[in-house]
Design goal:
Elements (H helix, E strand, L loop, with lengths): L9 H19 L6 E3 H9 L7 E5 L3 H10 L14 E4 L2 E9 L15 E4 L3 E5 L2 H14 L5 H11 L5 H11 L7 H4 L1
Parallel strand pairs: 1-6, 2-4
Antiparallel strand pairs: 1-2, 3-4, 5-6
Helix pairs in contact: 4-5, 4-6
């Protein structure tokens, strides 16, 4: 099913629908919803201007999340040359991977990952806040391991409808060990 007024490419839209179903299934069991992080969150905020190769989520209930992935038709690729960290689905163009128990080691303010409803029939999903995603990109940039992520941080900043500048500055300083702040993404 396609949403004509969404900014996302079809494969990402399918992945968001599946993530919403997964999130709702966990919530129905009284378990916390997974949080979309990493490149998937960047693609979410940029309307697919920056595209990801997979959907990274965090969840404190990984075994239960994996049970729900199986119920939804996901499988873990196996055999020579296959990654065993992620999950794939025949109808979703992107794989899913659980990358941790909590976003960014519990440093973000959890109230900034409130559920949002994109699809009335699918359920709610959670996305790490845009401020935390900018801070994540700046932290990786500061580490020297992903120098190209400064451009992503700046793009996210430019596209944001509203930014809590104080929170953003604190989060960037935390993630970059004090080397950078909000002013570094404004330019």
């Amino acid at each position: 099913m396609s949403e004509p007024d969404t900014p996302w490419r079809p494969e990402f839209l399918n992945a968001l629908r599946m993530l919403a179903r997964l999130s709702e299934a966990l919530a129905e069991r009284g378990l916390p919803r997974p949080v979309l992080v990493g490149g998937g969150a960047v693609e979410f905020y940029t309307g697919s201007a920056v595209m990801t190769g997979d959907i990274d989520v965090t969840s404190p209930v990984q075994p239960e999340l994996e049970e729900e992935l199986v119920k939804l038709g996901f499988v873990r690729p196996s055999g020579p040359g296959k990654s065993t960290r992620g999950w794939v689905h025949p109808d979703v163009g992107l794989g899913f991977e659980v990358v941790g128990n909590s976003p960014m080691g519990d440093t973000p303010d959890e109230t900034r990952t409130l559920p949002l409803r994109l699809f009335s029939e699918e359920g709610d999903l959670r996305v790490l806040s845009i401020e935390d995603m900018i801070a994540d990109r700046m932290g990786q940039y500061a580490s020297g391991t992903a120098r190209d992520l400064l451009a992503q941080a700046r793009l996210l900043y430019e596209l944001a409808e509203a930014i809590d500048e104080d929170y953003l500055d604190r989060r960037i300083r935390t993630e970059s060990a004090g080397d950078y702040g909000a002013k570094d993404v404004e330019s």
